[in-house]
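Design job #97: recover the sequence.
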């Protein structure tokens, strides 16, 4: 990719950098860019993807989501998107690790609450910061040093279920049973079907598969294994990785029993409503 090659060339000529911030155009799809920097082996020793930040205009975002201009409407690349229109704003929010909602001073508290709820419905994982005049409380942890792909601690704050507030893109959260080491290959096979083919498998490997009905933009998960390991899943579009989780789940009194016995997966994408992801995975693991 020319963007990756340009950064490699820059580093070779200028030496190391503390931070590289890549600003894209207002119509860019971050889902096409993130995997390039995430998995490129040539950059692995000196550069890693820290996170994706999306800037939202509190005054105009609801209009952009509901009544977009022709140039703001997009189509899914792998198959035809069925249902309400999908906008660039949907894509940029759904891929974000941090959402900065600016111009909060220009709207009422009631409208600001609607913006909060709508953004959270699209992306239940992203951290949200409300600002006016572009003033953020600090750089570290807000725009820089996000380490969004190093852990999955935010899963502890995402409730199980599915948000129906936005008809185009939504966040779905479900539990993953405690897995044996032998079932990890089955889990990866299930993920390849869902993320690569947009196909939700039925109960067993030899059972009929559901028709293509969804596209996953972002995947995060914590998988607990019976041998004591805790693994995390990170995914952007078709690209996903399973690795050792360095951020074990919280153990508050309320979630101690459930979190100790089960993992959790969060999917952000289109066409999720009504599809039995948790039942599909559980059945596939047994098959």
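Job complete. Output follows.
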């Amino acid at each position: 990719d020319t963007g990756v090659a340009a950064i490699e060339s820059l580093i070779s000529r200028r030496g190391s950098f503390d931070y590289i911030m890549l600003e894209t155009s207002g119509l860019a799809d971050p889902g096409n860019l993130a995997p390039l920097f995430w998995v490129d082996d040539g950059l692995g020793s000196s550069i890693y993807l820290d996170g994706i930040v999306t800037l939202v205009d509190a005054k105009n975002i609801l209009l952009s989501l509901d009544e977009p201009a022709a140039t703001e409407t997009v189509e899914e690349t792998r198959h035809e998107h069925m249902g309400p229109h999908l906008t660039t704003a949907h894509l940029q929010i759904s891929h974000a690790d941090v959402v900065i909602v600016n111009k909060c001073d220009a709207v009422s508290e009631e409208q600001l609450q609607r913006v909060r709820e709508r953004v959270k419905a699209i992306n239940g994982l992203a951290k949200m910061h409300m600002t006016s005049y572009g003033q953020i409380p600090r750089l570290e942890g807000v725009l820089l040093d996000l380490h969004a792909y190093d852990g999955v601690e935010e899963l502890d704050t995402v409730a199980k279920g599915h948000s129906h507030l936005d008809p185009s893109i939504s966040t779905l959260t479900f539990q993953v049973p405690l897995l044996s080491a032998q079932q990890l290959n089955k889990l990866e096979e299930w993920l390849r079907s869902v993320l690569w083919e947009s196909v939700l498998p039925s109960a067993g490997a030899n059972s009929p598969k559901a028709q293509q009905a969804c596209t996953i933009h972002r995947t995060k998960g914590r998988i607990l294994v019976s041998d004591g390991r805790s693994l995390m899943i990170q995914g952007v579009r078709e690209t996903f990785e399973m690795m050792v989780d360095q951020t074990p789940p919280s153990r508050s009194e309320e979630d101690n029993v459930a979190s100790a016995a089960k993992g959790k997966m969060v999917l952000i994408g289109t066409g999720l409503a009504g599809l039995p992801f948790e039942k599909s995975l559980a059945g596939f693991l047994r098959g």
